[in-house]
Each structure stands twice: as C-alpha cells, then as structure tokens.
Design brief:
The chain has about 110 residues and is of the alpha/beta class. It has a single domain (about 1-105), classed as Rossmann fold, CATH 3.40.50. The protein is about 45% helix and about 20% strand. α4 links the parallel β2 and β3 (about 85).
Amino acid sequence: MIRSTIYDATLRGLTANWYAEVLRRVPEDAAVLDVGIGTAGALLANAGLVEQKRLRVTGIDIDRDYVARARSKIGRSGQDDQINVHLESVYDHSGGPYDAVYFSASFMLLP
C-alpha cells in the first residue's frame, strides 16, 4: 500500500485538474470508462461533478494496490453507487457501452 500512498501524493495534484476538464465536457447521465483509474483520488477530487451530472464511472487498473485503495476511498466517499473499480487490463475489459472513455496519463503506458 505504500506505492498507492506515494501515487496519491505525487499524481493526484497533477491529474485532478485534467479530470475536472474532461468531466465538465461529458454529458449528464453518461457512462464513463476510466482506464488507469489508479487510486481514484483525482476522480474523487471531482466527486461533486460526478454526483451533479449523475455519471456512472467504471474504473479499471492493472495494479492490485491501486485498485484496493480506490475501492476503499470510493466506499468512504459514499459514491460506490456511481463509481465501480475493477482489477483488469483495458485489453480484457468487456463492459460497456460507454459514452466516454478517459485515459488519465495511462495511454502512454500501452504497448
């Protein structure tokens, strides 16, 4: 879990503004796939937008520690009815359909 703490300390500040910009552009009641959700810290920094726009977010990540921390944080936030996180690769994901797909600094990691 130390990696997920470091992740939050270093990346949340950088990516929270990116999330805000994207979420403002997503239509109300949209289904969103968040690829590389990490610990969900940046998404939860914009919890007001998620709730206000009634978004349904499915987050996926390949890091077990990040997913565990994300699930814990989402549960504490009370938004677990709007945000679900899965431990899986974008290549294995079969959910959807989605109105928007967001790669938060994870697109560059794809082979």
